[in-house]
Amino acid sequence: MKASRVFIVVIIALMAVILLFELNAPTRFKWDDKSQSYNSKQPFGCYVMDSVLRASLSQGYEVCGSDIDQYFGRTINSRKYTFLFTNNYADVAYFKDVNLLDLIKDGNNVVLATDENYYSYEVSDLSEELDFHLSYIDDIYMSTSNIETLSDRTLMDTIHWCDDGMFGPGSYLVSPAFCNYELKLSSSFRPLATLNRAKRLVGSQAEGYVGTIAGIRNYGKGKFIVVSMPMIFSNYGILDDNIRPLVLRLLSECGNLPIVRYDQSYVGKTTHEQDEEGEGSPLRYLLANQPLRWAFYLALATLVAFVFFSARRRQRVIPVITPPVNHMMDFVKRIGGIYYKRHDNVDLLTKKYATFSNDLRTKAMVDIDIDNNELIDDELQLLSNRTGIPRDELQRQVRDVKDAMMATSISDKRLQQLIDVMNDIMHRINI
Prior knowledge:
- The chain is α/β, with parallel strands linked by helices and 431 residues long.
- It folds into two domains: 247 residues, no CATH class; 103 residues, no CATH class.
- 46% of the residues lie in helices and 17% in strands.
- It contains 16 helices and eleven strands.
- The protein has a nine-stranded mixed β-sheet with strand order 1-11-2-3-10-9-8-5-6. A two-stranded antiparallel ribbon has the order 4-7.
- Strand 9 and strand 10 form a beta hairpin.
- The longest helix is centred in the C-terminal third of the chain and has 23 residues.
- The protein is elongated and about 125 Å long.
- The two termini are 53 Å apart.
């Protein structure tokens, strides 16, 4: 193998090893990023969740930011929505001149996933008006916000979904890191999910905890759902097999209204669509990841070096090789000339018959050289079925050929007639 080819093979092998190593390397996530931003691919971002819900919810799913006013305006024209707030309701209440309580009364739905109470004038006294509040779960029940507990499968809470007529009861294991607050709800609420926290020893007694973490109530023409586990609405939540059913069940409680998730970091649909189009480009994916980007640059540098050094080599002249002359026709003409000069028609007919009988055996599975009279009759009948020629006529034709081969000489005309008979039989078989 030439040195240039060895060089190319070594470079390709090194690139393959580097790519495999980087693809199999563990992904480094930013667990402290709890922004729940639409463009964040971290565990507690919402890029994956928004993509999955947008593709799977038939009623429609959108993300909005400062343009949330347009959805408030549409509700005036009898267009209703389900608004999803994840720890960011205060941003709307402070800066938007709209009362969400009036929107709910008018027939819109609100899903509030939060871990804080709203008792101020600026946020419309939401907690007081709807009669709910959150309380911190004491540390005695292993409440923790330490994200490291996500990897400890022995330390899990059990979430029980209450039978609501739409969905049957169910139990799901969730890390304690997702829930540090319980809900205190009035009788106007119907509990949707409860938390069963594992027991631990306190002194000489084993204690546990049961509390409500999601509830729903009717308010005017709309519905209000409050959830004390805001971080389940994230990439991690939608990809976790235990949390995903909770997310979908909570959103399904609001019926078939289009869902609008508020995200204060959302900068507009046009920019987001451009981001999604860019993410679909393989080249953009390569350049967005540092290991793949350097592998791509190395491949380009190698290709440029190969082209540069290859251009300096002198091109070799490839000789034109004349294909060998086919002398088969000359051979056939010589053999034919010998038979013509000798005029040995019997030998020529014998060779033609040998080819004819062999073709019958291979193509029609018929053997006309059998000495047994009963078997030869069966073979001729089979040949008659294949060719459409009556058996008696076939028997006569075969007998004429065999008799001519036993003669001392035959005329040119008779030879031509017998050869035409054999050719006609083979032609009928090949049709």
